[in-house]
Design goal:
- The protein is an all-beta fold.
- The protein has strands at residues 3-7, 10-13, 18-25, 33-39, 46-52, 58-60, 68-73, 78-83, 92-99, 108-109, 113-118.
- The strands form two sheets. Strands 2, 4, 5, 6, 9, 10 and 11 form a seven-stranded mixed beta sheet that branches.
Length: 119
């Protein structure tokens, strides 16, 4: 059974930082890319960042470049999203995802973690 478990969300003031974690288990994702997507109320889910387990290639959405950084710890099967200089418009539920293609959503999703940025 595949499991992606997110943690690290919360409430933070604008300009602050949070680090999200996604722990993967249940199958081998070595050939996959792990991604973060987010969905704000009334909006469609959108791509945030992704990284390949093998090689570490990354991709970041233009809206978060220079502020968010995705990384991985292969030994822990965990992917991180370091979010700095947070803005109120970053408020959303953040979802972890596993996909064969970097930057595109695959079929495996976590349950989501809420990030709220106050002005």
């Amino acid at each position: 059974q595949v499991q992606l478990v997110e943690s690290g969300g919360g409430l933070v003031q604008a300009g602050g930082s949070l680090r999200l974690s996604c722990a993967a288990s249940g199958r081998t994702f070595s050939s996959y890319a792990m991604g973060w997507f987010r969905q704000a109320p009334g909006k469609e889910r959108e791509f945030v960042a992704a990284i390949r387990w093998s090689g570490g290639s990354t991709a970041h959405a233009d809206s978060v470049k220079g502020r968010f950084t995705i990384s991985r710890d292969n030994a822990k099967n965990t992917v991180y999203l370091q979010m700095n200089s947070l803005k109120p418009e970053d408020t959303a539920v953040y979802y972890c995802n596993a996909s064969p293609t970097l930057g595109y959503a695959g079929i495996y999703w976590g349950q989501g973690t809420q990030v709220t940025v106050s002005a």
